[in-house]
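Journal club prep, shared notes

We agreed each person brings one worked example of a sequence with its structure written out as tokens. Mine is SMP-30/Gluconolactonase/LRE-like region domain-containing protein. I'm keeping it raw so we can talk through how to read the token line rather than staring at a rendered picture. Sequence first:
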Amino acid sequence: MALFGSHANLLGESPLWDAVRAWLWWVDIRRNQVLAADSGGVLQREWTFDRPVGAIGLAEDGLVAAFADGFALIDGAGGIHWLASPAIGAGAIRFNDGKVDRQGRFLSGTMQHGGQAPALATLWRLDHGGRAVRLVRGLRLTNAICFSPCGGLLYFADSLERVIRRHAYDRATGAIGPREDFFDCAAHDLAPDGATVDGEGRLWVAMVLSGQIACISPEGDLVALVDLPLPYPSCPAFGGRDMATLYVTTIRDSGHRLKSDLADAGRMLAISGLEARGIPETRFVPDNHIRN
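Then the structure, token by token:
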């Protein structure tokens, strides 16, 4: 386990391995930034926008992004091309976590600052062509969005509820089935943030409050807890030449409850030797073509 690069984020999130460039992309939500570094941790991109970026995915020419208030493409020069601005609600609500599904659609959910009642956050799907479809209502802090290797299962969590949910996911349409409670984080005194899936279908989940990464089997059993040397891990992603390195973003100052004065807080970690390999990211397809 080692520090990756020298950059320290305030609120690092949404790491994403680009195998074509051999770069790791991620966002710093509080600084309104999208960043990329090569395999040695040297920064290659550092774009700053006029609003927060909650999550990103690879696109056929650049990135797809959930900005605070809508979906857009980011081209190779950092230019923004807006796709959809769905009605996510007024006040302290913004897009947060997100992932591209196995067929090239982008899912992202919103969050409420403070987690106030009633629960107004939502989960959305951005379809080919830029249409935004609301999938789930009644959330407070959407996180841990990821898909099974075949793409037929969707996982996500409301972090304040501390339960990872599972839904059947229609690969042709993007429709979801009824909720199943997959893993009770509260029963293990854990709080989920971002997540990814390996080639065997195991979930690797950032447990933000305990400073750990949890490995959960496809059957919903806790396989391992990996202790980290930095506080507040926010999201993991597999990458590297053989997809066997787990990169983890962390938080220095979320702007709310999560804050650390540790010298390396906010740095990124690269973890090897986990005997797991990730799945290359699917790219968002901004047209009507669906990959079956």
